[in-house]
Amino acid sequence: MRKPPRRRGGVAVIRLSGEGARHAAERLVGEMPTARHAYFRTLADNEEPIDQVLAMWFPKGQSFTGEEVAELHLHGAPVIVRRVGSALLSMGARPAEAGEFTRRAFLNGRMDLAEIEGLGDLLAAETEAQRKLALRTTSGELARKAEAWRGC
Q1: Cβ distance 1 to 25 under 8 Å?
Q2: Based on the domain organization, do 85 and 41 belong to the same domain?
Q3: Helix 113-124 to helix 128-138 angle, to the nearest 10 degrees?
């Protein structure tokens, strides 16, 4: 779980990653949907409805981190995000550190260092040229070229 945003937004995404992610999400939204499908759910804490959300679940090996992941797409009002965050903290979840999901993806073999560098460049991109170059690196193009060079 990441730290709540400091600004208001239309949508907030809370991502739970690791063992128990599905169970924690199910305590808030009931049964999680079929893997990699989004379902409309009522999110409730102690049976009190908090928001209407989209809930998704990714089994181990089918997520960005390679771990079991549950995502809750909720309205971005700070009061809602804080309330959901508090409920998750009370279940034993903790906010993710900066870059933690990317680190987990690397440690689980989901990304290499070049892809991570490309992702950082993509997040910092301000021009179309920067975006295009970063996206090529993030998609593994550099790794594929290096592998081809090794084969020569």
Answers
A1: no
A2: yes
A3: 160
Quote the CA–CA distance of 29 and 51 in Å, as a whole number: 10
| pLDDT digits 0-9 by tens, 16-47 | 999 999 999 999 999 988 999 999 999 999 99
Q: At what angle do helices 141-150 and 128-138 cross, to 10 degrees?
A: 50
Predicted TM-score (pTM) of this structure: 0.81
Q: Does residue 54 lie in a domain region?
A: yes
Number of domains in the chain: 2
Q: How far apart are CA 146 and CA 114, in angstroms?
A: 10
Residues 126 and 90 grouped into a single domain: no
Q: How far apart (Å, rounded) are the C-alpha atoms in residues 72 and 9?
A: 15
Spatial contact of 137 and 115, defined as CB atoms under 8 Å apart: yes
Instruction: Tell me 1's DSSP state.
Output: -
